[in-house]
Amino acid sequence: MSGTTSALTPPSYAVVPDRHPEAPAPGELLGSHYGQCFGCGTGQPHGLHLEARAGEGLRVSAEFTVREVHQGAPGLAHGGVLATALDETLGSLNWLLRAIAVTGRLETDFKLPVPVGSVLHLEAEIKAVAGRKIYSTATGRIGGPEGPVAVRADALFIQVKVEHFIDNGRSEEINAAMNDPDQVRRARAFEVNP
Ligand SMILES: CCCCC/C=C\C/C=C\C/C=C\C/C=C\CCCC(=O)SCCNC(=O)CCNC(=O)[C@H](O)C(C)(C)COP(=O)(O)OP(=O)(O)OC[C@H]1O[C@@H](n2cnc3c(N)ncnc32)[C@H](O)[C@@H]1OP(=O)(O)O
Question: For the Thioesterase domain, which residue ranges apply (predicted)?
Answer without folding.
Answer: 75-137
